[in-house]
TrEMBL record:
<dbReference type="InterPro" id="IPR011059">
    <property type="entry name" value="Metal-dep_hydrolase_composite"/>
</dbReference>
<protein>
    <submittedName>
        <fullName>Amidohydrolase family protein</fullName>
    </submittedName>
</protein>
<dbReference type="InterPro" id="IPR006680">
    <property type="entry name" value="Amidohydro-rel"/>
</dbReference>
<dbReference type="InterPro" id="IPR032466">
    <property type="entry name" value="Metal_Hydrolase"/>
</dbReference>
<dbReference type="InterPro" id="IPR051781">
    <property type="entry name" value="Metallo-dep_Hydrolase"/>
</dbReference>
<feature type="domain" description="Amidohydrolase-related">
    <location>
        <begin position="55"/>
        <end position="435"/>
    </location>
</feature>
<dbReference type="Pfam" id="PF01979">
    <property type="entry name" value="Amidohydro_1"/>
</dbReference>
């Protein structure tokens, strides 16, 4: 099938300038040629797609999402046996928001792969998924690495079932092993069909705010070597300056949230190492408005860490390291977003500044990095070409060139003039086909509204108080009821 996209300004991600007056010829889902309409060999039966006055860029990529991020006890119980539906919904949310390919860096391997394959076969619409499954060395959702309280109230049967779904043979037991034994376990996990490897260079959880190292340097190299031996990329979860240095020296292709290094800034020598190695720098930035909000809600310690993360982001812009867009993006259940405790975290930011939202967080990222001094074309490449290169899929994705998959994002305004213009989506084309954006997601679950209040809720009387809080009551002062 042939299509010819005409009339638009093309920003291909290769040239440093926009291309005006050119057309894009698409054949069987791939770009056949880009050039002047009258100079292209256009078949007589080609479908003309007129995008006059629009701006065409490569489909956006996201280097770090979690399509089943809402792994709370309530959500996993409510949708037990339906995780594929949740992941499909999230993939459709991502596609509607202009992301034609996303890289899921933590989630239930088997379910993610099932949805990935359905999308690849064309049986289900959604953003193209590539997945790592579990983070090597981490325990499951109902553990000290994530949501330990669930294990205190759920049955051990359900806790073990959920944790096994995420972890299999890739969990914390690897920390007791020799590097060679770690490599063997990683090799077994890779053989189950994941697309890339992610491991924990540093811990995840509240034990030491991310300061503890998870694996020795030799063990990290064994993990990376196994990934590369299988032809896959390797990345680390890093939250300290030493974890970052060790990840780069281990040969990682990219490092997730590398600007998060606790209360200290990345040393100049490590910034230089980043640039020399061309390891992908996956940055989690907040906008200036988001930082102001966080400053007023978190502890002094956490604010110091966010301040260092902002300094790191700015320094990485000037370092010469390839910067990648990512945001831990996921779909949160509406009942979770209402929880008071969430407002005291980075996921509780006002919607316009909330980095972690799958549908909008990548737009926040682009505005935040614009504020930190990233040039317009560098912003576009951070969301397209740089990610494709880091994951070694740039033969197919990341730029608009002959031979590549026809993933196009059509905007109503020039993204090189302002980062906010990425939000002005006119159309999305994936594999050369226009997407029905209005119909996504097809089956809302977590994106659906909460059910209306029960009649009984209007009659409900709280046990301790109703109305004004009692002064001097410790529980009232803490907002615990």
């Amino acid at each position: 099938m042939h299509k010819l996209v005409i009339g638009a300004t093309i920003i291909d991600g290769v040239s440093d300038k926009s291309r005006e007056g050119d057309a894009i010829l698409i054949v069987d889902g791939r770009i056949s040629a880009i050039g002047r309409h009258d100079q292209l060999a256009v078949p007589a039966d080609a479908e003309i797609v007129d995008m006059s006055g629009k701006f065409v860029i490569p489909g956006l990529l996201n280097a770090n999402v979690h399509l089943l991020v809402n792994a709370s006890l309530e959500t996993l119980l409510r949708f037990e046996g339906r995780y594929e539906e949740l992941i499909t919904e999230a993939a459709q949310v991502a596609l509607k928001a202009g992301m034609t390919t996303v890289f899921d860096t933590w989630g239930p391997r088997k379910v993610l792969m099932t949805v990935r394959d359905r999308i690849d076969r064309g049986e289900t619409i959604g953003s193209r998924i590539r997945c790592a499954g579990n983070i090597i060395g981490f325990d499951g959702p109902f553990s000290g690495d994530f949501f330990a309280k669930a294990a205190e109230v759920a049955s051990s049967w359900f806790v073990d079932r959920v944790n096994a779904t995420w972890v299999e043979n890739s969990g914390r037991h690897l920390m007791w092993m020799t590097p060679a034994q770690v490599g063997e376990e990683v090799r077994t996990y890779i053989e189950r069909g994941i697309d890339f490897v992610k491991y924990g260079a540093t811990e995840h959880g509240g034990m030491a705010a991310g300061a503890f190292l998870q694996f020795s340097e030799l063990a990290q190299r064994a993990i990376v070597d196994e990934a590369h031996r299988a032809g896959l990329t390797a990345q680390s979860h890093s939250t300290s300056v030493e974890g970052l240095r060790m990840s780069i020296e281990a040969g990682c292709d990219l490092v997730t949230h590398c600007n998060m290094t606790g209360p200290v800034a990345i040393p100049e020598e490590t910034l230089g190492l980043f640039a020399r190695s061309q390891c992908g720098a996956v940055i989690f930035p907040l906008t200036d408005a988001g930082l102001e909000h966080v400053k007023g809600t978190v502890s002094d310690l956490e604010w110091t860490m966010w301040g260092a993360a902002d300094t790191n982001a700015r320094n990485l812009v000037r370092s010469g390291a390839p910067i990648l867009l990512a945001n831990d993006g996921g779909v949160f259940a509406p009942e979770m977003l209402r929880e008071p405790w969430l407002k005291g975290t980075w996921n509780g930011l006002p919607e316009a500044e909330a980095l972690g939202r799958l549908a909008t967080g990548h737009f926040v990222w682009l505005r935040a990095m614009e504020e930190k001094g990233m040039a317009p074309m560098d912003l576009l490449r951070a969301a397209t070409r740089n990610i494709a290169r880091a994951y070694k899929v740039d033969d197919d994705f990341g730029t608009l060139e002959a031979g590549k998959v026809a993933d196009l994002l059509i905007l109503d305004a020039d993204p090189l003039e302002a980062a906010r213009n990425y939000e002005r989506i006119h159309a999305v084309m994936k594999d050369g086909a226009l997407v029905d954006l209005a119909g996504l997601p097809e089956h809302p679950l977590l994106t659906a509204d909460l059910p209306p209040p029960l009649d009984e809720e209007g009659n409900y009387k709280r046990f301790l108080h109703h109305g004004a809080r009692m002064p001097g009551c410790p529980s009232c002062a803490a907002g615990q009821h």
